[in-house]
Amino acid sequence: MSDAKTEKAEKTSIAEGIVRAEARDAAVDAQARVVQQKGFLDDVIDGVQLGAMVIFFICLVFVAIFGSSLPSIFPVTQPLYDALVGLPQLLTQVPDIETVLKYVPKSLDEACELRASVSVWIAHVLHELAYKQWVLGLSWAMYLWQTKLNIRQRDRLHDVRRPKGIATFISRQVYLEANAYGLDKSSLLLVRDFIGQLQTTAIIAYDVVPWLWEQVGQVTGENVLVQSVGFFVAASVLSTVLGLPFDIYSTFVVEKKHGFNKQTMGLFWADALKSLLLVLALGAPVLAGFLWVIERTGERFYLYAWALMAGVQLLMILIYPTVIQPMFNKFDPLPEGDLREAIEALAGRLEFPLKKLYVVDGSKRSSHSNAYVFGFFKAKRIVIYDTLIEQCTTDEIVAVVGHELGHWKKSHTVRMLLMAQLQILLIFYSFSCFVTEPHMYESFGVEGMPVMLGFLFFQYLYEPLGMVLQFATNVMSRIHEFQADAFSRDLGYGEQLASCLIKLQIENKATMNPDPLYSAFTYSHPPLVERLDALGNPHLASKDE
Asked: How far apart are CA 70 and CA 64, in angstroms?
């Protein structure tokens, strides 16, 4: 009788297990259908892309049929016709190598003459440039490029097939959940960017900037420095207000839906207010100093402005983790135990000047995790998120700390800081070519030449070069990440680091299979598969399922 009951219980348990497995499979299949399904936003994207192609080919047909009479028949097509006709002429005017070599200076005097000629040419171009049209054109070009990257990434997120390289340690359910999270963030990003681009276009086209400048001037008086600071305050408040609906949706809809948000509405508003006050409190004096330096130091102001900003950046590196971040998070000494002993032993082994070892309450706001090193000279500190401690083992956390210490050992932070300084110097030098050009201010309807507005307009013109430099920064950052991974592996933590990276990828629902072009332009860290491959993970393969 007892054996019969046992057999019956076993059969019941097996049946229940089968039912649960079938329910899980059904849930995963349902999740796959949700990820694959393209909604209204995807239909809009497809329609816009198809419409743009159709319009382009129709324009080509019209040009072929009507020729030079097209602009007189349809005046709105004049810019397109000029561009199509002018492109071949522009290409034929590109000099060959022999012509270029003729202008290569062969002495110091010739170099000086060439520099003077180039300066005159640049001044002429800047004086004749249609600034507002160029700013609008570049703004839309950058927006379309970034949107194209986002759409490529979105198409990847709709793909439910796991790469074979991660199929051994990333379940189908985990992969689909990460893609669903990525799609929700992508939808918000596309809408936010589109509305932001419409706002930018309206601000430029309808001269909102000079209008706001005049309104602030009526309050602050004729002192340009005070007016500039007032304009900064007003613009910062407006920018914060315009961004709040998207921040609220991101935090309380997207992040909450996927189990990350831990913030209350009260904490959100407190953070938003503190962030805005910090921007104003720190930004206003820095802006005033920047404008004062430009006014006082003449044509080579870019050198002095660069020195000022370098000092500000170093100061921020010093005070952010010790003064600013504690306003938002609580930092406690890491309790005594195996983890603390292991980290201190590793620091001693590498002669890392560890002064403080903290755990921060990252779980107060989010389930995302992290660890980092900061501090100058002999006063180094290591900070570990409490979420990381919850998600990983002691050895895995030590492996992550070993990665961070690899950045210190190989001076990656110093290299990135120097690269940032070179970019800042390039920005200020480029700005020096525009700041005294009255035609730029006139193009935007500005009376006089307030430096504050000149720098604002210049940033739109600089944006394409900024994108290229950001790409270069991402390339260097990814190289550093590989080197830091290798450093941790050489310490004997390669397997533990790989295991922790996989856990963090799963816990953070990070994209498992990003579009290569998208990741190249937007990721400062290499994708998971590339990092595991570099670590020599034996489970990786290279082909899709």
From this structure: 9
Q: Which residues contact 273 (CB under 8 A, 6 or more apart)?
A: none
Fill in the amino acid letter for 18.
I
pLDDT range class, residue 370, cuts 50, 70, 90: confident
SS in 3 state form for 115-127?
HHHHHHHHHHHHH
pLDDT in tens, 510-530: 888 899 999 989 898 898 888
Of 34, 54, 23, the C-alpha closest to 158 is 34
Q: What is the pLDDT of residues 353-367, one digit of tens each?
A: 888 888 888 777 777
Give residues with Cβ within 8 angstroms of 302, minimum separation 6. Answer: 425, 428, 429, 431, 432
224 token code pair: 């340009």
- Phi/psi for 166 (5° steps) reads -115, 0
**Residue 428: how many other CB atoms lie within 10 Å:** 22
Which DSSP state fits 544? B
* Beta strand residue intervals within 75-204, DSSP E: none
Q: How confident is the model at residue 198 (pLDDT cuts 50, 70, 90)?
A: very high
* Residue among 501, 85, 381, 445 nearest 77 (CA): 85
Three state DSSP letters for 224-282: HHHHHHHHHHHHHHHHHHHHHHHHHHHHHHHHHHCCCECCCHHHHHHHHHHHHHHHHHH
For residue 244, the model assigns a pLDDT of: 92
Name residue, tokens 């504690």: 326
DSSP 371-414: EEEE-STT-EEEEEEHHHHHHS-HHHHHHHHHHHHHHHHTTHHH
> Per this entry, what is the length of the chain?
545
CA 467 to chain centre: 10
Q: Is the pTM of this model over 0.85?
A: no
Q: To the nearest 10°, the Cα dihedral for 249, 250, 252, 256?
A: 140
- List of residues 6+ apart from 511 with CB closer than 8 A: 153, 156, 157, 178, 179, 182, 527
At 94, the pLDDT band (50, 70, 90 cuts) reads low
Tokens standing for residue 62: 């019209």
pLDDT more than 90, % of the chain: 28
Residue 19: its pLDDT value, please? Answer: 45
Query: Residue 493: what residue type?
Result: Y
Tell whether the model's pLDDT for residue 21 goes beyond 60. no
The owner of tokens 């992508």 is 186
Residue 391 neighbours by CB under 8 Å, 6+ apart: 369, 503, 504, 507
Q: What is the pLDDT of residue 105?
A: 72
Buried residues in 47-62 as b, exposed as e (16+ CB within 10 A): eeeeeeeeeeeebeeb
- Catalytic residue ranges: 404, 485
Q: How many CA atoms lie within 13 A of 138 on its CB side?
A: 18
